[in-house]
Amino acid sequence: MALIQRLVAEPTPFDQQTLDDHRDVALAVAGDHEAFLRLYQRYITPVYRFLMARLQQHHDAEEVAALAFERAWQSLGQFKPNGPFVGWLFTIVRRCLVDFYRRGQHRRQQTQLSPELASHQASPELTMLELEQQSLVHHALAQLTPEQQELLQLRFFAQLPYATIAQIVGKREAAVKMAAYRALEQLKRRLTDDQSI
């Protein structure tokens, strides 16, 4: 009985995160700019990682991220706290990404180093090897369907839980897990095929 009371009294980190988000949204709607800044700081990294995986250009990812957070700020009053803020935010990010593609502003250049690789360059040989591996992954990922790409990018680049991804894409969590598993298996096969050539 004590265990059940403790579990109910102590929210999980995700539950606490959701509560923090809802509190910050309410404060931001009331005009507290610092509250929105906390939301921005909490989610800019996963948003940027997801956009870099989709766009592969720093400038483009920054542009779409800025637009997404601007739209989130303008739409905060429409947020309904019956789900996680991060799911609502990534729905806006996806819409901004679609708008960006529609405007034809997407510039693709796959040979660019990601910020993670560029920040720890050890030697030209190691950098070249990492760049080649990154290129292989991007090439294999590009061969998946757009839906599979998005699921893997939300899961592994943005590091979102399956429940949040389900909310973003409008599917059941079990269906998202199965689709992500299949996409990951297909990606592994493609990487194995690419390396055997």
From TrEMBL:
Alphabetically ordered keywords of this record: Sigma factor, Transcription, Transcription regulation
Cross-referenced Pfam families: Sigma70_r2 (PF04542), Sigma70_r4_2 (PF08281)
Top-rank lineage group of the source organism: Bacteria
GO molecular function: DNA binding; sigma factor activity
Span of domain RNA polymerase sigma factor 70 region 4 type: 137-187
GO biological process: DNA-templated transcription initiation
Protein's name in the database: RNA polymerase, sigma-24 subunit, ECF subfamily
Lineage: Bacteria, Bacillati, Chloroflexota, Chloroflexia, Herpetosiphonales
